[in-house]
Amino acid sequence: MSIHYSIPITLFTLCSLLMTSPLSAQHPTTGIFDRAQDIGKFTEPGQTSYDASTETYHLTAPAGPDARRFVWTTVQGDFILRAEVRIPASSTLTTGWAVRDHLGAAAPEVLGTIGAAEAADQFVVLELSREGDSLTFRTARFGEPLHEQWTREDSLRNEVFTGLTVAGGDGAQVEYRNVRITYPAPESLVPYRDYLGSRLEILNVETGLRTIRLTSDHSLQAPNWTPDGKYLIYNSNGYLYRYRLTDDHVVMLNTGFATDNNNDHVLSFDGRQLGISHHVAEEDRASTIFVLPVEGSDEPRRVTLPNAGHSYLHGFSPDAKQVVFTAGRNDKYDIYLADVATGRETPVTDTPGLDDGPEFSADGRYIYFNSNRSGMMQLWRVEADGSNPTRLTHDHDYNDWFPHLSPDGDDIIFLSFGTDVESSQHPFYKHVTLRTMPVGGGEPRILAYLYGGQGTINVPSWSPDGKKVAFISNTGR
């Protein structure tokens, strides 16, 4: 579920025209960075290459005991630098992030680097972040949790040169993927009034490789993948938009009077219907479920009954005759079903705490959801009539939200917050991960490390072939 505040309708034309853009302008050889150069004395120069189709980088260090390759841009203030790095096993290179006051060989700098012994022929996640006067370096083998290596006081300037670096020239190439520079939310940001920008990303669930398809200064949220594989549907500023994957074309969907929609929108299993959660002004902005043809409609049809309470949509039944949703009823939130034709409601859960994020299995037998009935927010499964509740995640280091089943029904992908976030909350702008595990339970594995949260993956977003997932990450400017 989500809480949503709309912008004035007078901004509609501006938002619809300027909301999104294709991948931000990038240098053909250095991607998101401005320049590549060698620092220090060298006998052979280093090399840099960039593959725009995969957004991956390859760096070769210059030959020289104190020389290094540095591909850089300038940043100011707080930042989060993330990359996944792989070094040839036989190499003697060191590589990672460098943050420098200037480009001279003797510049004050901070390095977050590793050697070949730590990243030999496998991807290692490197994260170097600055918050106020502190820098923190964390690492992980890809798929495992990040661990802090050090935190130290930052004596560098506010504006610094930062980027990827490699030293110890032995002719070997270092590979970097999922390279992101993120500007986190300032302490002064007011949630649901102030927003950061968005990146609509696509994740290959087998390899972990991510690519950015759209960027926006607006808050884009919750992409659905259409069953024909051609489009992603997301919400922004109360409206629904359709993004065409073949050419980045974006159009606004006609939702008639429903122009105050939150990020709880879903497609029916056959892709013919779109369900939305629109805040009805005349009912104290209660989130209310409507359905309409996926092509859009002047008159969405109401499903949940007037003055029933907040209703946050999360799924259709396989036959599209029911919707499953998070219902604010009896002063708490539980999982409910509603008949699409009559609006008649049937409770599925009735427990203390918060039950949220429900989704049907493709055979209609089960409903998967998240609940903090155990004290932590964890994934659960019940039969469609609410019987036989089964807990699926059991770790104590994460609060897990929004389980989404793969098209073949074998796997679940979900959003995990750390324990720094209350179990009943799923806020914007946090360090989060996307994790996956077998549908029947098992040890979760991290697929993506990102800055996001609310709006990242609230809704089903698997590609029809089950090979990819769409999601939103966030950054300031």
Protein topology:
Blueprint: H1 12-18, E1 21-22, E2 35-39, E3 47-51, E4 56-60, E5 68-76, E6 79-86, E7 94-100, E8 109-115, H2 116-119, E9 124-131, E10 134-141, E11 147-153, E12 159-167, E13 173-182, E14 197-204, E15 210-216, E16 221-225, E17 231-236, E18 239-244, E19 250-252, E20 266-267, E21 273-280, E22 286-293, E23 301-302, E24 311-316, E25 322-329, E26 332-339, E27 345-347, E28 355-360, E29 366-371, E30 378-383, E31 390-391, E32 398-405, E33 411-418, E34 430-438, E35 445-452, E36 468-475
Antiparallel strand pairs: 1-15, 2-5, 3-4, 4-13, 5-12, 6-9, 6-13, 7-8, 7-12, 9-10, 10-11, 14-15, 14-36, 16-17, 17-18, 18-19, 20-21, 21-22, 22-23, 24-25, 25-26, 26-27, 28-29, 29-30, 30-31, 32-33, 33-34, 34-35
Question: What is the CATH level 1 assignment of the largest domain?
Answer: Mainly Beta
User: How do the strands of the widest beta sheet line up side by side?
Assistant: 3-4-13-6-9-10-11
Count every helix, treating DSSP H or I runs of 4 or more residues as helices: 2
Quaternary structure annotation: single chain
